[in-house]
Amino acid sequence: WMTREGDRRPASTPGLDAAFACDALGCVAPLPGGGTVAVSRRAESLDPDCLEALIVVTAEMPPGNCPARVITPAELARTGTLALFRDDRGWREVPTRPRGTQRPWMPLLPSEPAYHPPATGPDESGLLDADATDGGADAPP
Questions:
Q1: Partners of residue 3 on adjacent β-strands
Q2: In the beta sheet, which residues pair with residue 21?
Q3: Which 8-state DSSP code applies to residue 101?
Q4: DSSP type of residue 99
Q5: Strands annotated E in 42-81
Q6: How many CB atoms lie within 10 A of CB 51?
Q7: How many CA atoms lie within 13 A of 5 on its CB side?
C-alpha cells in the first residue's frame, strides 16, 4: 500500500512501525488529532479495543455494543481499501470501490447478506404471515 501512496520505502524500513505498540493480541497506534486505532488479532482483545480505540480493524466478530468504528475483511471485500480522513465533523471515508461500482478489472462483488423478515406468528386464521403471502395452506409445497 505504501507504493500506491507514493512512498517508495520498503515496509521493512527501520522505525516505520515505531508508532505501533504490539502484543500477542494485536497492535495499537495513535491517530492524528487524538485517539487510537487498534488492530485486533484475537477475539479476546475486542472488548477492551472497542472501548479504548476510535477505530478497530479485525477479522473477528466485534461485540454488538462496540462504540468504535469497526473495519472487517467482509466490509473491505465490498468497499475495497478505505481512505479515512478526519475533519472537524469527524471521520470521512472514501472507498476505492463505491457502492454499485463494477470495473472490468475488479473481481465480482460478494453478495450482500439476504434479509429475511422474521415470521410474526399465527394470525386469527392460524396461518403464519408468510403462509398468507404464499397462497396459504392450500398452496402446493
A1: none
A2: 28
A3: -
A4: T
A5: 55-58, 69-71
A6: 13
A7: 9
The candidate with the shortest Cα–Cα distance to 68, out of 82, 56, 59, 60, is 56
Q: How far apart are CA 59 and CA 76, in angstroms?
A: 11
pLDDT in tens, 7-60: 788 878 888 778 889 999 999 999 988 999 999 999 999 999 999 999 999 999
Burial class (CB in 10 A: 0-12, 13-18, 19+), 1: exposed
**Could you read off the pLDDT of 56-95 as tens digits, one per residue?**
999 999 998 999 999 999 888 888 888 898 888 888 888 8
Residue 130, classed as helix, strand or coil, is: helix
Q: How far is CA 129 from CA 27, 117, 141, in A?
A: 49, 10, 16
pTM of the model: 0.65
What amino acid occupies position 127?
Answer: L
CA 60, CA 120: separation in Å to the nearest integer?
Answer: 31
Radius of gyration of the chain (CA): 22
SS3 of residue 41 by DSSP: coil
